[in-house]
Design brief:
This protein is α+β, with helices and mostly antiparallel strands. Helix content is 16%, strand content 36%.
């Protein structure tokens, strides 16, 4: 006689401690779960709706400037420190966790055009309208001491921007020409010029640290190498580039904020046309910055909005705006990939979450697992019409909405006109030119 005995392993259903959850037995046989896909679709739809419900990106503002914010610099080693410069020459040092203005002094006469930290973070450099390069200590002066720079360099040319080398004691300034400086010398080590009236932005590459690039007034982007005696390449665009940012993870990729409402991502190995055109703004894009992962970029525009793009997509995944925020003058992404800083010309620096619905503070293990599961389900059903509609819908100001409609209408009419012209002409008379090739006028070496 054969007797079957039911045997159970206690590890399958007993808790290790009293605080653990009870383990529930589950059979993963798909034949026993015929409605698994519809149930997951409902979970993905609910997760997408909840993401939009909890999307509250604005955290607060740093109030202390007496004029518009022109630029700011992130501390290379500390997440809690930020330095900003204003239109009136004012320089403010901020403590981000408490949102307090730690120091407040006038460093220049007129605009502060650029500000940057040294690699050790113990001092920073600022340039302004008064043609001076000033070196300041990050530490607060002792009681009774005045705010004075410990070193000052007077330049012979106008200065419009500054960028520091990632490791060495070198920094670059731009204005009438691009100049390379050493912190210990009062004269530039090298002057690089390529027949341009003025340069308004310069940036060092964070990976290939000997490379730097600048934006010029003749609608061009100029690439330099500090080891060479002259510039490397020059790319002339149809409209003027305002700011440039290098990808912190890829040495050959950079993005440009342009005057024609778009952002362009270039590959230095092939500058004949951009890799991606990022659309969505309805006015000139004033600044751009990369996330520390190099996967996303954030841009600020004259249309009073902030947009976040994936480097692989043409349209933004999110748009931030408030009623009081005016034209964006500077933008930045924090080094921990969690926050975004924006400076505008109504004297405020605002703090935003990089992901609008992300929970701040301590996240327990169960919450982390639930968030991960929701992200997986949203990605799985992202192509479904209802999920896609809810995930992509954004409220924007009325003026931005109307301008977007006008621009879309104009773009559609131009495409239709070009199609009709080619359709009713002799073959080969009107050749189709891709949009990416219309951006670049010429490339010089």
């Amino acid at each position: 006689m054969k007797v079957k005995v039911i045997s159970r392993n206690p590890d399958d259903y007993l808790r290790e401690t009293k605080k653990d959850l009870h383990k529930m037995p589950r059979n993963y046989n798909p034949s026993l779960h015929p409605f698994e896909a519809p149930r997951e679709y409902v979970q993905a739809l609910n997760a997408t709706k909840l993401e939009r419900v909890f999307a509250k990106p604005f955290l607060g503002c740093l109030d202390g400037h007496r004029d518009g914010v022109s630029c700011f610099a992130k501390h290379p080693q500390s997440l809690s420190c930020l330095i900003s410069g204003g239109y009136d020459g004012q320089i403010c040092v901020w403590d981000l966790p408490t949102r307090n203005n730690m120091r407040n002094f006038y460093g220049h006469e007129g605009f502060v055009h650029g500000i940057t930290y040294m690699p050790d973070g113990k001092s920073f450099i600022s340039v302004g309208n008064d043609k001076s390069i000033k070196f300041w200590k990050t530490a607060q002066p002792d009681f009774g001491e005045d705010e004075e720079p410990f070193h000052t360099i007077l330049s012979r040319t106008v200065l419009m921007g500054i960028s520091h080398h990632r490791h060495e004691s070198l920094f670059a300034t731009c204005g009438e020409v691009c100049q390379l400086w050493d912190e210990s010398r009062s004269e530039p080590l090298k002057t690089l010029k390529w027949g341009v009236d003025s340069l308004h932005a310069v940036t060092f590459n964070m990976v290939e640290t000997s490379l730097l690039a600048s934006c010029a007034s003749d609608r061009s982007i100029i690439l330099y190498d500090q080891r060479e005696a002259k510039p490397l390449r020059k790319v002339i665009m149809t409209m003027r580039p305002n700011k440039l940012a290098w990808n912190p993870m890829e040495a050959f990729t950079f993005s440009v904020a342009n005057e024609d409402y778009n952002l362009y991502t270039f590959d230095t190995r092939r500058l004949k046309n951009p890799v991606k055109i990022h659309k969505g703004h309805v006015s000139a894009v004033t600044d751009v910055d990369y996330s520390p992962t190099g996967q996303e970029i954030v841009s600020g525009s004259y249309d009073k909005t902030i947009r976040i793009y994936s480097v692989f997509k043409n349209f933004s995944r999110d748009v931030y705006h408030t009623k009081r925020m005016q034209h964006i003058t500077s933008i930045g992404w924090s080094l921990d990939n969690k926050y975004i800083f924006s400076g505008s010309d109504e004297m405020n620096i605002r703090l935003w979450k990089a992901r609008a619905s992300e929970k701040l503070g301590v996240v327990r293990q169960r919450e982390r697992m639930a968030f991960r599961q929701n992200e997986t389900l949203k990605e799985k059903f992202s192509a479904h019409p209802q999920v896609r509609r809810i995930a992509q819908h954004r409220h924007v100001p009325r003026k931005v909405f109307n301008d977007q409609r006008k621009q879309n209408f104009i773009r559609e009419r131009e495409v239709k006109k070009e199609l009709n012209r080619r359709k009713h002409s002799k073959p080969g008379k009107h050749v189709h030119i891709p949009e990416k090739q219309k951006v670049i006028l010429s490339e010089k070496k």
